[in-house]
Structures are given as C-alpha cells and as structure tokens.
C-alpha cells in the first residue's frame, strides 16, 4: 500500500549511500554542484534528510517511524540511541545483518514468504521485534535453504559482536 517501490537510484543520489537498500557500488557524479552554487543547508533540511535516510534504509512508512520515535521518547535514555536500537532489533534488519539476504527488501521477502523461524515458530512479519537470546533459523525445506545459502555465499556479511551465525547445517 504505502511501501516505496519506485526507483532506488534516485533515492540514493538524493540521500547518499543506503547499504540496506541496494548492494551495488554506485558512483555519484557531482554534475550539478557547481552549476547552482552552494547554499547553507537549513536545520530543517538536514533533519528531514536524515529522517528520510532512516525511512528508506529500513524500509519504513512514515507512521511506523513515528510509532518507533514515540516508543523511544517514552523510554529512559537517549532517544536517538534507543530509536536506532528499536530499528536494529527488527527481524528483517537482523536477517540482513546476518547476511541471509543481500538487501533489507530481500530480507523482508524472505520473512513474508515464511522461510524464517524465530524460536522454532513461523514468523511472517518483517517488523517483528526480536529479543536478545532469540534463535533465528531457516525453515527445514530445500527451497528455503537454497535461497539463503546463495546469499551467504555471494556476499559474506560483516556480523556484529551481538550477532552470530552458524552455517554448518545449511547445505
């Protein structure tokens, strides 16, 4: 309904690199910089651009981002840091960070099609908020394993200290 399905390169050119949106290397030409001159960016423009980067990187709608912001604002601690924690705990983002999918939209598709199990329960909601100690596994089907094996082989992900992946059972 409101998910952005338009050209991704336009968004990347305008907002800068978004590693979750596309896995290709892009060379952005600075053709128009000298033509129109340099203007000081207003605070509003800087904040809007950063908000749009968050939205398009994580594949969120405006309403979802506002809900996450309200949750972060209500909880104790720095709001920005808590907001990023909430966004990083989403299931589609964790699958992307583990390297099971090359992009966040690809991870969303894996979750929507039921290839992912969380604590041995089928979860088909990409915005599912994972908790620490959750075990994310691949559904025990040949098709599911082949999809994830291809993405693991093609682009090994740089996993964080808090995430670990065991590729022993994938074949």
From TrEMBL:
CDD domains: S4. Its main location: plastid. Residues 3-88 form the Small ribosomal subunit protein uS4 N-terminal domain. The keyword Transmembrane does not apply. Gene3D superfamilies: Ribosomal Protein S4 Delta 41, Chain A, domain 1 (1.10.1050.10), RNA-binding S4 domain (3.10.290.10). It holds the Pfam family Ribosomal_S4. One of its GO terms (molecular function) is rRNA binding. GO terms for biological process: ribosomal small subunit biogenesis; translation. It is found in: Plastid. The keyword S-adenosyl-L-methionine does not apply. Keywords: Plastid, Ribonucleoprotein, Ribosomal protein, RNA-binding, rRNA-binding. InterPro entries: Ribosomal_uS4, Ribosomal_uS4_bac-type, Ribosomal_uS4_CS, Ribosomal_uS4_N, S4_RNA-bd, S4_RNA-bd_sf. Residues 89-153 form the RNA-binding S4 domain. It comes from the Eukaryota. GO terms for cellular component: plastid; small ribosomal subunit. HAMAP family: Ribosomal_uS4_B. One of the primary rRNA binding proteins, it binds directly to 16S rRNA where it nucleates assembly of the body of the 30S subunit. Belongs to the universal ribosomal protein uS4 family. Part of the 30S ribosomal subunit. Contacts protein S5. The interaction surface between S4 and S5 is involved in control of translational fidelity. This is Small ribosomal subunit protein uS4c.
């Amino acid at each position: 309904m409101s998910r952005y399905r338009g050209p991704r390169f336009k968004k990347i050119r305008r907002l800068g690199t978004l590693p979750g949106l596309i896995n290709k290397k892009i060379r952005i030409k600075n053709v128009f910089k000298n033509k129109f001159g340099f203007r000081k960016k207003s605070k509003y423009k800087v904040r809007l651009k950063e908000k749009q980067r968050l939205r398009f990187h994580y594949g969120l709608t405006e309403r979802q981002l506002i809900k996450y912001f309200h949750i972060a604002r209500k909880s104790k601690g720095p709001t920005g840091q808590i907001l990023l924690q909430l966004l990083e705990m989403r299931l589609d983002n964790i699958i992307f960070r583990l390297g099971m999918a090359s992009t966040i939209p690809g991870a969303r598709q894996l979750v929507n099609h039921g290839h992912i199990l969380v604590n041995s329960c089928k979860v088909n909601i990409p915005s599912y908020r994972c908790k620490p100690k959750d075990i994310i596994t691949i559904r025990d089907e040949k098709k599911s394993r082949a999809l994830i094996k291809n993405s693991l082989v093609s682009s090994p992900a740089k996993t964080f200290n808090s995430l670990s992946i065991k590729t022993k059972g994938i074949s």
